[in-house]
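For the sake of clarity, the format in which proteins appear in this thesis is described at this point. The record quoted next illustrates the convention:

___
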Amino acid sequence: MTLTALVLGVVEGITEFLPISSTGHLIIVSHYFNFSGDFANMFNVVIQLGAILSVVVYFWKRLLPSSVKEIKLWIKVLVGFIPALIVGGLFGKKIEDYLFNTSVVSAALIMWGIILIWAENKSKRQTPTINNVDNLSYRTAFYIGIMQIFAMIPGTSRSAATIIGAMLLGTSRTVAVEFSFFLAIPTMFGASAYSIMKMGIGNISPAQWVKLSIGFITSFIVALLVISFLMNYIKRHTFKPFGYYRVALGILIILLTTIKI
């Protein structure tokens, strides 16, 4: 079980900020580790908080509310968080009960992989109108937040949905990625708090706390490295390779589940 926690922490750290669906990958890996049940569902949500903490550390100076500019940024982030807060509160349990399976993950991986490739091709023909996250309007932030709702479907990817939405709304690739990072902070804090409260802190055993700690710390360290990689990657490359990867992985999952491997 400790090995499972470590592996899932690595998987989460790698996939949280890449547009390839961390939840989808966690569901797939958990399936092959026979890791399921209420604790597994909570574990897979809470370790995402470790990855989110890496955003706070990496962008600490940028996020510290020390001036009007940073305060406005936080307000935009909270505005973008509202759609997910409302829809998650109303339908989160049903989504978890009916959609958290490999069939949905594979379909979402393929569909959003194709959309990501299409969005990149479309952005080539357009000049971004928003090249700094500070120039993002509250309305645009809210629209990006609406796109984040799609990420509740496992396999979609919160990063993919928000990045695609932001780019289609006229942001540069860098702005889309940065705002996606920032928007993840309240979103995953809220999801983790809800998951822990649903299970009940008193129902988590000492051994389970150890597993949560291993997954949390591992995802934090790995995600910090991935953020640094991604911020350099987007300066010279597009997200199309991730789109192709999503399609290939989705097809592979369908084949493996069909032949029951």
